[in-house]
Amino acid sequence: MKILVIEDNESVCEMIDMFFLKEGISGEFVHDGLKGYESFKKESWDLLIVDWMLPGMDGVTLCRKIRQEGSEVPIIMLTAKDSESDQVLGLEMGADDYVTKPFSPLALMARIKAVARRYQKQQPEEKGLIGTTHIKINKETREVMLYGQPVTNLTPKEFDILLFFVQHPRQVFTREQLLERVWGYQFYGDERTVDVHIKRLRKKLGTEAQPLFHTVWGVGYKFDESVDGHES
Question: Among 25, 39, 93, 163, which residue's beta carbon has the most beta carbons within 10 A?
Fold first, then answer.
């Protein structure tokens, strides 16, 4: 693996680098948010580790910029902030996971491997095909397979919503963000439109699929196959 670490604490970087050497991981370490963004743009990375508090550009802003450019590279955020609202913010900006400081290097390595495995499962198996553990979507033919069975009753917009969530696993999106990203900036409808469409999508996919779509209370929605969930 080739990992970019954007962390301003050199002692933390040295500790991480030591474990990278043991695991055979190639790591590059940058101590400034702006320089980290430049390094991200210059090369291709298998995973990013980003500290929340950085000089030049904070980790949340950096994460948001990377996602706005369309990159789906896995991102693990390091943070001393342990409140639920801070964690939700980090995930909402596009982080795949977070590790709270102080942390064990072994725990960080476990998170790296887990995120890398999830990302690899989600890579296209062939042109136009996006896959997770339970859902397969062909973007070109607009076909959906759930638990190995075809789903044929989705409207075009319901398909677009499902595709968007599968392309952004474990990321939390507000209703306003979903309107912008799925409907487009020219859509000026009520945010309750999102609730209606997701309710219909859950119903059409059936009870087995409902644990995949999670209501994040007071924020919005996310798609996550790793934990149990429920319908709002």
Answer: 93
Domain boundary, last residue among 121, 137, 162: 121
Helix (H) or strand (E) holding 216: strand 213-216
The backbone torsions φ and ψ at residue 76, rounded to the nearest 5 degrees and listed phi first, read: -110, 130
Instruction: Please check whether residue 173 lies inside any domain of the structure.
Output: yes
Asked whether residue 115 falls in the same domain as residue 134, the answer is no
Q: How far is CA 99 from CA 78, 107, 209, in A?
A: 5, 8, 28
Rounded to two decimals, the pTM is: 0.53
Q: Measuring CA to CA, how many Å separate 172 from each of 8, 17, 139, 142?
A: 27, 30, 22, 24
Task: Provide the token pair at 213.
Answer: 């779509």
Residue 206 lies in a domain: yes
Could you report the per-residue pLDDT of 1-42, keeping only the tens digit for each?
Answer: 889 999 999 999 999 999 898 888 889 999 999 999 999 998
Q: How many CA atoms lie within 13 A of 1 on its CB side?
A: 25
Could you tell me the residue range of the domain that residue 109 belongs to? 2-121
Which CATH number is 26's domain given? 3.40.50.2300
